[in-house]
Specification:
The structure is a single chain. The two termini are about 40 Å apart. This protein is of the alpha+beta class. The protein contains 9 helices and 5 strands, in the order ααβββαββαααααα.
């Protein structure tokens, strides 16, 4: 994905210059097939980006919600069995709270409200809620002051969810978006050069320094990638309290960002005019 113009894109030019075998013509896609491929790519890219940013926006909005005591009326750990034998669990609850002199009933436990089998968060939430229900002790609840009927019991992000969708966004969502942009940029009257679009090779327009095309794309990728790692710095300390493994995966994600910066810096160095093999003395 990060290969520059003097990588994949320059292979055909080098072969033509050296008189090697003929290069096959660039693969073309018919418009119907191109629309199908584009729809699939746009769907996956849109879903990943929507889920990731909706998670971050909702989490940061809930930070301003006010904490009030709540009484747990019902709680349950629901178990669901998939068609392929997988088992997922979800902690549910019903609770009452007061805000602004009025009484409300809430059902929302976590941000997503879905069931999963990642980690022990669902178990821990159910055990904590069950303990408060049996003892009658109030449990903390976060209420939207602008809409008091909206409430939640756990507003912090789960570390496994944060790391998982950060990886999906950085390693799949962002490359798909950039491939879509490059693809739209490469649309021509004779079809869609899909191989060129996905490889992000150099443009067909003759330039004095074709390697700059790859440098610009690598720089844009590095900039976007490292900007998207900012939520890890902001939200992981709160989400990963008392656990170490999320920091290992976060360090891997952030490390890839620093590697992309290094690649971007090296891409801006003009390629050597001669191959290293030409510098060696020739045998007589």
């Amino acid at each position: 994905f990060l290969m520059s113009a003097d990588g994949w894109a320059s292979i055909p030019e080098r072969k033509r210059a050296t008189g090697s075998a003929a290069i096959p013509p660039r693969e073309q896609l018919s418009w119907p097939m191109a629309i199908v491929v584009a729809s699939i790519v746009v769907f996956f890219a849109g879903f990943i980006n929507w889920y990731y940013f909706d998670m971050l926006v909702a989490h940061h909005a809930m930070r301003s919600w006010q904490e009030v005591p709540a009484k747990i009326l019902k709680d349950q750990l629901r178990t669901e069995h998939g068609s392929r034998g997988g088992t997922t669990r979800r902690a549910t609850a019903q609770y009452t709270y007061e805000f602004g002199g009025q009484s409300y009933t809430g059902h929302r436990v976590t941000w997503d409200g879905g069931s999963d089998n990642m980690g022990s968060s669902q178990y821990n939430a159910f055990n904590e809620l069950e303990s408060h229900r049996r003892s009658g002790r109030p449990f903390r609840c976060f209420v939207n002051p602008e809409h008091p009927e909206q409430s939640i019991l756990y507003r912090q992000l789960r570390p496994e969810i944060l790391v998982l969708f950060s990886a999906l966004e950085l390693w799949l969502g962002l490359p798909l978006v950039m491939a879509i942009v490059r693809w739209l940029w490469s649309v021509g009257p004779k079809g869609l050069p899909l191989k060129s679009a996905l490889a992000l090779d150099a443009t067909d327009a003759p330039t004095a320094e074709p390697w700059r095309g790859g440098a610009v794309r690598t720089t844009l990728f590095a900039l976007a990638y490292n900007l998207l790692t900012i939520p890890l710095f902001m939200d992981l300390p709160e989400a990963a309290k008392g656990t170490f493994w999320p920091w290992v995966f976060a360090a891997l994600l952030i490390g890839v960002g620093w590697v992309s910066v290094w690649l971007a810096v090296t891409e801006w160095r003009p390629p050597a005019r001669r191959s290293p093999l030409e510098i060696l003395p020739r045998s007589r």
